[in-house]
Design a protein that fits this description.
alpha/beta, 23 helices, 12% strand, Spore Coat Polysaccharide Biosynthesis Protein SpsA, Chain A, 2 domains, elongated
């Protein structure tokens, strides 16, 4: 009983010390006292004898030294039950941040499934903003660029969405100050999120934030989840007209998930995750919450596609959720004569190998698809005519629009530059 009480007492004391470090942590790296507490516990368990010795030395008069920050940190831990603590909090914070225990705690918490709110730098502000909003539709757009560049074509789309009563939230781990201000000036909420799990991780964490706040969740009829792997090409109004069609489809009283395109790559049917939409009935369902809650964030891009993109559609189908694709694979294979020649130029003859956004983009544009994949522009899929065909893009760009050309120039430099070198 005495040992159990002592362990409890030590835990509470370390919690108090972590709280004392909290303000300095928030200022230094936007971390909470949860980081500090778990790191302190790890250190405490690793050096019990040292802490007993330092406790004795503290009682006989040893005090911290500004020239020895790590000693000050260990003394603060050893003397946490004393009534005369007098330590430099910033010094202890910096020493703690530089420990291996901190690094391991950082890694553990960043990838923790239950820690969705932590990966957003301002999750509470985000939830308050949603709660106070008068909108009933959310458009979450996940962005990442090593130089913080935000395509002007996407800015135009996001602005048009706000005019159509969508509450637009931009999630980014690296957005330039200029672009952040540009978005906020058109009433778009910008939230910083660490790029853990790529876009699937952002979808997951945002969906779980909503699921944990029923007062917020009840307000919104529809949720669109989108990322920046594409560039709008037909203009903002054309894109938003498609979103209007999504809204109509999602007005069903049954759980519903919609997407731009579908695929049976990897031998499993799925809606492609660069743009998905769900209704409130699905957002409140157990299958939606359970899928995101159990989805791991670790792994490479292929694992995230298997478990996140493909896994999501398969989990929803298994739960009886209806799905719909604006540009369905079978619809285009049956109705668009040119698609077969286009696929053949990539030596694709099996529907299970078809990714229409990469290998049938011309057919999609003819069918009214308002986007072009960055991978088509900068990944250069191997075909007999892929480079020659890129000049066909300009027939789809609205007259007088220079934003698309500007985006291409900046994104090309960003994609093929060292982020530690010359910035675009």
């Amino acid at each position: 009983m005495r040992k159990r009480f002592q362990r409890l007492n030590n835990g509470l004391a370390l919690r108090r010390l972590a709280v004392q470090l909290d303000a300095s942590l928030q200022e230094a790296q936007n971390f909470s006292n949860l980081f500090a507490y778990k790191s302190l516990v790890s250190l405490y368990k690793s050096r019990p004898v040292l802490l007993k010795v330092l406790k004795f030395l503290w009682l006989i008069g040893l005090r911290s030294n500004r020239q020895m920050p790590k000693l000050s940190m260990w003394l603060a831990m050893a003397a946490h039950n004393s009534n005369c603590l007098d330590f430099d909090v910033e010094q202890i914070t910096n020493a703690l941040i530089n420990t291996e225990a901190w690094s391991e705690t950082h890694k553990e918490l960043l990838y923790s499934r239950w820690n969705s709110s932590f990966r957003f730098s301002d999750s509470q502000r985000l939830m308050n903003f949603l709660l106070e909003s008068h909108n009933q539709k959310i458009f979450l757009w996940h962005h990442y660029d090593p130089f913080g560049y935000l395509p002007k074509t996407w800015i135009a789309v996001l602005e048009e969405l706000t005019k159509r009563d969508w509450l637009v939230v931009v999630s980014s781990s690296n957005l330039s100050k200029e672009n952040k201000e540009a978005l906020e000036n058109i009433s778009i909420l910008v939230t910083r999120r660490l790029n853990i799990g790529l876009c699937i991780g952002a979808y997951r964490d945002f969906s779980l934030l909503l699921a944990d706040r029923l007062d917020v969740l009840e307000k919104f009829k529809y949720l669109i989840l989108a990322n920046d792997s594409t560039i709008p090409i037909l203009g903002s109004k054309k894109f938003c007209d498609v979103i209007d069609e999504f809204e109509f489809k999602l007005s069903s009283s049954d759980p519903m998930m919609v997407g731009m395109t579908d695929s049976i790559e990897r031998n499993l049917y799925h809606l492609q995750s660069y743009l998905l939409g769900v209704n409130n009935v699905l957002m409140k369902s157990n299958c939606w919450r359970n899928f995101w809650h159990t989805l791991p964030l670790k792994g490479d891009k292929d694992n995230l596609i298997d478990q996140g993109e493909i896994g999501l559609t398969q989990a929803m189908i298994s739960s009886g959720v209806s799905t719909w694709s604006k540009h369905g694979l079978m619809d285009l294979l049956v109705s668009q004569n040119g698609i077969h020649a286009e696929l053949a130029s990539y030596n694709i003859f099996d529907p299970r190998e078809v990714n229409m956004t990469l290998f049938a983009w011309r057919t999609l544009l003819k069918d009214g698809f308002p986007l072009i994949k960055k991978q088509v522009l900068f990944g250069f899929p191997m075909s007999n005519s892929s480079l020659n065909d890129l000049d066909q893009l300009y027939q789809w760009i609205p007259d007088g629009t220079e934003d698309f050309k500007m985006d291409l120039r900046y994104l090309l430099r960003s994609r093929f530059s060292n982020k530690y070198g010359l910035q675009p």
